[in-house]
Design goal:
The longest helix is centred in the middle third of the chain and has 20 residues. The protein has a single domain, classed as Divalent-metal-dependent TIM barrel enzymes (TIM Barrel), CATH 3.20.20.150. It starts with a strand and ends with a helix. It contains ten helices and ten strands. β2, α2 and β3 form a beta-alpha-beta unit. By secondary structure, the protein is α/β, with parallel strands linked by helices. The radius of gyration is 17 Å and the shape is globular. The structure holds magnesium ion.
Length: 270
């Protein structure tokens, strides 16, 4: 389980110092900016990553339009669930799939949104079809398509993976999200979809304390994930993917937290 960090795509691809400064050699590259999804920038990324000695284990692609990270507007803004944005976002994810393939990363990751828990919901099938369209396109590009956990319960993700059935689907498990969205416990979730987990976001958080807002994100080790036990369980199920540190703050405090988390992970990994 190699330790890496989330790295925002910027400066035309000259952005790998953010990884190297921590002594790390692997990252997930991330962007929400579709203007960066060009072959020229992809080629620059390849050169820059090579010269920095950094491997990109996956690309995290955001989609156009609004994104509200709460329970009131999240269901009508996030991912492929809102019908009014679906077609545009499927097209955006295909462009990110091209980009992912061109930079030589093995997988594209995104949040698919509040996929209906109830499979008889009229929106369930159309959402599954949209995901299948993206997954099939990724298959043609020889890459996988991974769900970042958050807005769905673990069993819903398992169900969608079974329904889509393209064989190139996986899960980017963000253990904090399961708790912050009140959707599950990450350690128990491994019993549901553990065999599909490909990457981990090393992020921690607290449970929601009201019905409208997510729980709070905190530095790994200070929330409800229970990292020592989580890491032990990942080992037990034979997980050997990357542990990608994600701290959703900025500046010096973020850097300090990332360094502390690397030290803690080394202890937790034993
Ligand atoms: Mg995450």
């Amino acid at each position: 389980m190699e330790i890496g960090v989330i790295n925002g795509l910027k400066d035309g691809g000259r952005c790998f110092e953010h990884v190297s400064q921590f002594g790390l050699n692997v990252c997930q590259l991330q962007s929400w900016d579709m203007t960066l999804a060009t072959p020229e920038i992809a080629d620059a990324v390849v050169m820059e990553a090579l010269s920095a000695g950094v491997r990109i284990c996956a690309f995290w692609g955001g989609v156009p339009g609004p994104s509200k990270w709460n329970f009131t507007e999240g269901p009508v803004t996030l991912g492929l669930v809102p019908p009014e944005y679906r077609e545009e976002r499927v097209a955006a994810l295909k462009r990110w799939a091209d980009f992912t393939s061109r930079i030589g990363a093995p997988a594209l990751i995104t949040h698919c949104g509040f996929i209906p828990e109830n499979m008889t919901d009229p929106e369930f099938e159309p959402v599954v079809e949209a995901i299948a369209e993206v997954a099939s396109y990724c298959l043609e590009q020889n890459i996988e398509f991974w769900f970042e956990t958050g807005q769905e319960t673990p069993v819903v993700l398992l169900r969608v993976i079974e329904r889509v059935g393209t064989g190139n689907l996986g899960i980017n498990l963000d253990p904090a999200n399961l708790l912050m969205y009140g959707k599950g416990n990450p350690i128990d979730a491994l019993d549901v979809f553990g065999r599909y987990v490909r990457n981990i976001h090393v992020k921690d958080g607290l449970c929601p304390v009201n019905g409208d807002n997510l729980g709070k994100e905190v530095r790994p080790g200070q929330g409800k994930v229970r990292f020592p036990e989580f890491v032990r369980r990942l080992k037990e199920i034979g997980f050997d993917g990357e542990l990608i540190i994600e701290r959703e703050i900025s500046g010096e405090e973020q850097k300090w937290d990332i360094r502390r988390t690397i030290e803690n992970l080394q202890l937790w990994l034993g």
